[in-house]
Amino acid sequence: RARLFYFVLAPILFPLAFSTPDVRRAKWRMFFPVTFIMSILWIAVFSYLMVWWTETLGRTLGLGAKPEIMGLTLIAAGTSVPDLITSVIVARKGLGDMAVSSSLGSNLFDICVGLPIPWLIAIAAGKKYIVVDANGMFCSVLMLFAMLIAIIIIIAISKWRMTKVLGLSMFMSYFVYLAVALCMGLDVIECIFDKKK
Q1: Which residue ranges in the chain fall short of pLDDT 50?
Q2: How far, rounded to the nearest angstrom, does the alpha carbon of residue 39 sit from its chain's CA centroid?
Q3: pLDDT of 192
Q4: HEC states along the chain?
């Protein structure tokens, strides 16, 4: 099993090992700024590759004109794996509040920092504005807000304890959101706030 993981992770581990100083070793500790910068650069490279491969898969599946569908499914799942691992680790230590807060906080960070920074850079580079064109975006934001309220209510009903019912209800609420958002992205249902075509 360890060999299988090593084989699967080799394309990631080799470039990191040869380009990023391992600051866990005493002789490399003074190079921590280089390690930090290289880590950010590699995250950017791997993120670019993930988006590119997802777009290619979307075109192969016939969803090339609907990039929001690939974003809602594959990219969202791929970028949420670190959050999932972190939440599982802290939940097993009995820190359920940290697990939930981490997930909510990382998504809020993505929306409030991760989106605006590239937009600000593009505008600073001379672009007048950024067009965000996704069907049902306003309805999706409203659904996310409604889900947040529902989750708070469900957590309160569970007496602020993480239970199987709480986990199942969160899981189901995600699939309800995903189903409605995909239906809007595929033009099966229409958001009443979208401009008529």
Answers
A1: none
A2: 18
A3: 80
A4: CHHHHHHHHHHHHHHHHHHCCCCCCHHHHHHHHHHHHHHHHHHHHHHHHHHHHHHHHHHHCCCCCCHHHHHHHHHHHHHHHHHHHHHHHHHHCCCHHHHHHHHHHHHHHHHHHHCHHHHHHHHHCCCCCCCCCCCCHHHHHHHHHHHHHHHHHHHHHCCCCCCHHHHHHHHHHHHHHHHHHHHHHCCCCCCCCCCCC
pLDDT of residue 197: 52
User: Which residue type sits at 181?
Assistant: A
**CA atoms within a 13 Å half-sphere pointing along the CA-CB vector of 66:** 20
pLDDT digits (tens, 9 = 90+) for 54-89: 888 888 887 666 777 787 777 887 778 778 888 888
Q: DSSP letters of 44-62?
A: HHHHHHHHHHHHHHHHHTT
* Sequence-distant (≥ 6) Cβ neighbours of residue 39 within 8 angstroms: 20
